[in-house]
Amino acid sequence: MPVVGKPTFPEPFPSQAFRDRLFLVDLVTGEAQELPLPPEGELIEYGFDAQGRLLGLSLQGAAVEEQAPSRVVELDGTGRARGVGGGKTPLRALGFAFQEGKWTRLEVKASSEVLGTAALELRKELGERSIRALDPRFEARDIEEDGVLDQLYELSPDQPEGQWAEFKSGSHSLAVWGTPFGNDMLATGLVRRLERGKVVALPSYPYRPNDMMSLRTRGPYLLISLSDSGGHPRMYRGNKRVWSSETARAVTFWPK
Asked: What is this structure's pTM?
């Protein structure tokens, strides 16, 4: 990860008994049906296309005798890997559609740890999904007002990389300590509101520069949660925190 230090809310590693499960939920009746997972690879992304088909994208490693030593691979909201250790292992990206009660393979592409499921053309057909909304990338704007920069300088963390940038969305203007990731900027938990040349802390706000965050807005509301997992969300309206949770996960705004 491009940040250092212990996160505010460490994510526990799943036990060896943990297994992925996929459910199809009827939002009208509330009924849930467990579906089988795609037969090949590890399911990385899933969602519906414009025709209402359920798509599943998976990654599969090389044959056992070709694999490098085990490593940790963390996929972000773009289907690309970050925080990868160990040697390089070729991967296959596979695209499936769930049709007539079973998964049908539609596409196979050579891929890598960096490219991930982004190698698949089928990925472009996926609609809105929480994994994309929970990505820590944000459109960073330069902060040019000297008075604001002076205030932010006092708050700058002792991090090997990073800089202050403005997150602007609708009526919301935030100063965010961002860390570079390739050509992108990732949002950390060090956030301040910008109000008429003043730097204002959010109330009851627990996050720090060693956390990776998702920033989303809808009208007067600002939603901040842990990136990727969407855990420990905080919702603000102006300078007031209106909602929070320590148990909810994958919290996003409903797509318009």
From this structure: 0.72
